[in-house]
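As a warm-up, study this chain.
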Amino acid sequence: MNSIVLYAPEIPQNTGAIARTCAATGASLHLIKPLGFDISDAAVRRAGLDYWHLVDVHVYESVEEYLAVNGDEDLWLLSTKAPRSYDRADIGPSAALMFGRETSGLPESLLERYRDRCLRIPMRPRARSLNLASAASILLYDVLRRQGFPGLLGTGIMAVGEDADQR
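Now compare it with the structure written out below.
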């Protein structure tokens, strides 16, 4: 199963949108503290995140704890500083896609440690970056496309008159 890993996310709306993408795809969501918001049951209810129960959420105190629990076998780091485009990487079916905080990205120490697994999304030179939720969706859906969208509805071509709910 694929995973989205967020290192110290700051903006609750981004994490909420990424959680919705995880709910729609079956990807798990890993959050590495510090978090810039509250994800207690009460806070989630107040925010109206009616899909939160569909998300496999894991929270870690640090990157070290995340790595100790999950390893780094198919870990990919996304950064605007990475030299290689994500479409040039052989991302497997159990990929963990790690994204940094909205204001500062991933720590340089991680980018250096995993230099051969740092990827970027191509964009115009003068564009600073994409929104975190947009970037996570682009990567996750491309990885799923490469895998043939396993277990997801709506794949394949519908016949004329066929109801999408039947697929």
